[in-house]
TrEMBL record:
Cellular component GO terms, alphabetical: plasma membrane; side of membrane
Pfam families: Ig_3, V-set
Name the record gives this protein: Opioid binding protein/cell adhesion molecule-like
Keyword Repeat appears in the UniProt entry: yes
Family the UniProt entry places it in: Belongs to the immunoglobulin superfamily. IgLON family.
Location within or outside the cell: Cell membrane
């Protein structure tokens, strides 16, 4: 609100207008289109201070700072009600400067230093430009989807100048790459390799970029990445290992032939740690040798691998991690139906 707005309620508005006219255009001194007008732009960042300078000399009889229709200072007398606006105390003899502290967007606009020298009015116009650092105002929440779905991510930001937005992908494997520019990011037919965190980076070179992150989790069926057959002598400890990647994390079951191996029976222990399952034989016997099936399952699907525990001298592919042949179909159907009953 201008000074006139504050004084109008007490009936002093006309007095103020009269003072402005008396100060800026004294009686008998008409303004002319040829009067000197100097223009300048000052750019500051929101929250900083702006110093508006005006050159004067000893011939100046009257001087004032105005913002639009509001008188800020008339000589050394403060007219502005804004405590952020101050007259520079260390102003040189040839300067008449004011400072606006903690500048905000509403301070942007034209300012005029009006000078009367030798009964000739002059003015210096300063346009204050306020820059605002980029700031993210809205961003998508973390999301969990199934593999093959479409994901729409959104990131909105403000700033002066206008903020630019880029997206970067940080995968669980530790890779980082640029994805795209713009407020919206669309991932069609998403794969498990596209899971991870997506960084929205908003910047306009006014200050450090504003960065926010969206976590994208992609559900996918188990994939057995490690299943190794093992040779162990009778009476020794033997371990069969099975490792499966999956989201959600896979549940494991072990079978020998078509019979499920139960934890803790017949000297056998099953240990599940994260994405790995181990079938441990504390004292291998002849009856323990044979073909075992590791089954990994989650709500997205089920898979299996055949692993063999064999004795010394037996010829086996120690890297054998094979999907079970046609005879395992019945086993998989049984395991799948049993697992889905839980849900």
């Amino acid at each position: 609100m201008g000074i006139c707005g504050y004084l109008a309620m007490s009936g002093k508005c006309l007095v103020v207008i009269g003072l402005k006219l008396l100060f800026l255009v004294p009686a008998g001194v008409p303004t002319r289109s040829g009067d000197s007008v100097l223009k300048d732009n000052i750019t500051v960042r929101q929250g900083d201070s702006a110093v508006l300078k005006c050159n004067v000399d000893s011939k100046v009889s009257r001087v004032a700072w105005l913002n639009r229709t509001t008188i800020l200072f008339a000589g050394t007398e403060k007219w502005s009600l804004d405590p952020r606006v101050i007259l520079m105390e260390n102003t040189a003899v040839t300067e008449y400067s004011i400072k606006i502290q903690n500048v905000d967007v509403h301070d942007e606009g034209p300012y005029v230093c009006s000078i009367l020298t030798n009964k000739k009015p002059q003015s210096t116009k300063v346009h204050l430009i306020v820059q605002v650092p980029a700031r993210i105002t809205n961003i998508s929440k973390d999301v969990t989807v199934n593999e093959g779905s479409t994901v729409n991510l959104m990131c909105l930001a403000v700033g002066r100048p206008e903020a630019s937005i880029i997206w970067k992908h940080h995968s669980p494997r530790g890779t980082h790459k640029f994805v795209t520019e713009g407020e919206h990011l669309v991932l069609t037919a998403i794969t498990k390799d596209q899971s991870g965190s997506y960084e929205c980076i908003a910047s306009n070179d006014i200050s450090s970029p504003d960065v926010r992150t969206v976590q994208v989790t992609v559900n996918y069926p188990p994939f057995i990445s490690k299943a190794r057959s093992t040779g162990t002598a009778v009476g020794q400890k033997g371990v069969l290992q099975c490792e499966a990647s999956a989201v959600p994390r896979a549940d494991f079951e072990w079978y020998k032939e078509d019979r499920r191996v139960l934890n803790g029976l017949n000297g056998v222990k099953i240990e599940n740690q994260g994405k790995q399952s181990m079938l441990i034989f504390f004292n291998v016997s002849e009856e323990d040798y044979g073909n075992y099936t590791c089954v990994a399952m989650n709500t997205m699907g089920i898979t299996n691998a055949s692993i063999i525990l064999y004795g010394p001298g037996a010829m086996h592919d120690v890297n054998g991690a094979t999907v079970l042949p046609h005879c395992s179909v019945c086993l998989l159907l049984t395991v799948t139906s049993t697992y889905l009953v839980k849900f």
